[in-house]
Design a protein that fits this description.
The radius of gyration is 17 Å and the shape is globular. Helix 3 crosses helix 4, helix 5 crosses helix 7 and helix 6 runs parallel beside helix 7. It starts with 6 loop residues before the first helix and ends in an 11-residue tail after the last helix. The mean pLDDT is about 95. The longest helix has 21 residues. It has a five-stranded mixed beta sheet. The chain is an alpha/beta fold.
Length: about 210
């Protein structure tokens, strides 16, 4: 039986990229993007999924954006703290898109796909920011995502990130939650665990795959 030990084979030519965004509200068109964490993934020769490159940016609120006080209380971000070393969103997103595009080409995939916890939120903010910045080389699928909340609900009956991680025996520090970097790391750990556990259980490669 064919081992199917590449990202290209495993995810139908999609290249999965784990992303978490912290924002100043829930409206992707008007509320500021404040922080972004990205982790690219790789697969070893045996077909086990692992974390690869970690990217993290603090983002300056775009001109005219709205900043909701309740959102800042929730994520504990001070958008105007000079020690954040924030960059404008176009600079951060273009850098991320360039890295992802390179990884797509290296892994012989056709398109990137966002992996996130409650993925529609992160996808909508990233797509809106990309459009707002006039970035043309968006490597991600325009609407398809891999949502670890849904996958965790199926696998362990938990949809909250912390509880899903704990159900899989992964550590989770609630005091570090709602940092884009920490949540991206935990989401990446969770997604790798989900994919690898399915492989351990014999669900991959599929039984009807041909050698």
């Amino acid at each position: 039986m064919k081992e199917l030990s590449s990202l290209k084979d495993r995810f139908r030519n999609f290249y999965p990229v784990v992303i978490d965004l912290e924002t100043a509200g829930l409206n992707h068109n008007h509320d500021a993007l404040l922080e972004i964490g990205v982790i690219t993934l790789k697969m070893d020769k045996y077909g086990w999924l692992k974390k690869e490159k970690i990217i993290h940016f603090h983002i300056k609120p775009f001109r005219g954006s709205l900043i909701k006080t309740d959102a800042l209380i929730f994520n504990k971000i001070d958008p105007f703290n000079p020690f954040r070393q924030a960059v404008n969103e176009k600079e951060a997103i273009q850098f991320i898109f360039n890295i992802v595009s390179q990884r797509i080409e290296t892994n012989k995939c056709n398109k990137g796909i966002i992996v996130a916890h409650n993925a529609n939120f992160d996808h909508s903010f990233l797509m809106a920011a990309s459009k707002r910045c006039g970035i043309k080389n968006n490597p991600f699928h325009s609407f398809v995502t891999f949502d670890t909340a849904t996958l965790s609900g199926l696998a362990v009956g938990q949809t909250v990130l912390a509880r899903a991680c704990q159900a899989f025996g992964l550590s989770f520090d609630n005091n570090k939650a709602h940092s884009a970097l920490y949540d991206t790391l935990q989401t990446a750990n969770l997604f790798c665990k989900l994919v690898n556990q399915w492989k351990k259980l014999g669900g991959w490669p599929p039984k009807n795959s041909k050698s």
